[in-house]
Fold Lanthionine synthetase C family protein.
Amino acid sequence: MESHAAGRAWRSVLPADLAASAIAMSTEVGERLCAAELAVPPHNAGRAVLFGQLDCSLPEQDWARRSHSHLTAAARTVEQTERGVLGLFGGLCEMAFAAHALSRDGTRYQRLLTGLDGAIATSAAALGRTVARAPAGLPFAAFDAISGLAGIGAYLLCRKDEPQAEAALRHVLTGLVGLCGESEGLPNWHTPASVMIPNTPMSRSYPTGVLNCGLAHGVPGPLAVLALAEMSGISVPGQRAAIERAARWLAAHRSDDEWGPNWPTGIPMPDATGAPPRAYGPTHNAWCYGSPGVARALWLAGTALADPELGALAVDSMTAVFRRPADVRRIDASPGLCHGVAGLLQITLRFAHDTGEAVFAAAAATLTSQLLAMFQPHRRFGYPALTENGTATDDPGLLDGAAGVALALLAAATDAPPEWDRTLLLA
C-alpha cells in the first residue's frame, strides 16, 4: 500500500472535544511531573521532551522554562555518571536526543550537542565496527533499540547533517547490515542461550536461544533503522538487501490468529538434537513486542524499498489489532509507551497519518478515550507504570512512565509533529 504522508502536515485525528480533554490531561500530567521538581534525575531528559512538546502547543504557558531546567539537570546527571553508556534509553543518546529535540532547528544547545556527539560518535563507530566483524550470536543489548546499535543509529540519523555523526552512523549501519545477514543457514541476529541474561522470562521461555521478534529488543529494531536511513538518503553497501532479508524473514515467521497477522515474542533456536523448534503463539500487541511494533518496521521497510506487498502486510497487521478483542491484545492494564496503550496509540497515529485510512483515526480516538479513563488521580503522576511482575510504580519517564503517556495524548490531540517518536523507531 502506498504512503500518502509525503508533504502532508501532522494533524490531530480526534474530535475537538476529545482533543481538548487529551490536551488538558497532558497538561495535568505535566504539572504533576513539574511538582516532582528534579527529584528523579534519570528521567529528567524525558520530562524535558514532554515539556518542550507542551510548549509547542501551549506557548503562552511556562513550559519552555521548565523544559530548559530539566534538560540542564539531565546534562548535569550525564556529567556525573559513566559516559561510556551509549543507549537511547539510559545512556548518552537519551540525553543527546532530548537536546536535539529541544534545539529549535539547531538554534539552541549546540555546544552541548557538539560535546555529546563527539563522545557518542567515537564509541558508536567502534561498536559498529565490532558488530560488522562478528555479527552473529550477539546479546540483545549489542543491537537493540534500548541499549544497542538500533537505538544509537536512530539518534545519529537525527544528526546526519553533522559530519562526525554521519561518519559514525555509516559504521553503525554497516554493523546492522552484517547483523541482518546469515551464517550457516541461521540469521546472524540469533541470540544463543549462553549470552542471554539468566533467570529472566526470555531465558526461561527460550532455553535453546532465540531469534527475537520484538521492536524493542529484536530484529525489527535494526530493520526500522536501516529503512529510515534508506528513506533519508543514507545508505551503505548491502543495506537494501539487508532490509529485504529481515523484512521477508519477519513476514515468514508470523504466528497468526483468527483475527489476522500476528507475531510471537521470538522464534526458538533448534536444540542440540536438531529437532524443529517448538511453535510459540502470539504475544501481546504492544510497541515492545507483538504485531504493532513489527507492523511499523515492515511499513518502513516497504516504504524504503517501494514494496507494496510489505506495506499491505503492515496495514493488514495493524487493522487485525483492532479486530481483536481488547483482552486478546493483552495490554490494557498498562498505560505506558513500551508495553501499554500509549505505545499502541502512537503507532496507530503514525498509520493514520501515513495511510489516511479511517480505521486508524477511529482506533486512535478509542485508544485516547481509554487512556483518559485510565488516569488515577491518587497516583503521584496520574499514570503508574507496571513492572514485569505487575507491580505499579510511580515512574515519571518517557518509555514506561507518565511522560510518555502525555506525549502520546498530545500527538493525538494537537497539530505539533511528534518528532520525539524517533526514540521508538517509528518515523
User: Anything to note?
Assistant: The radius of gyration is 20 Å. DSSP finds 17 helices and six strands in the chain. The beta strands are 182-183, 186-187, 210-212, 266-268, 385-386, 392-393. The first strand starts at residue 182 and ends at 183.
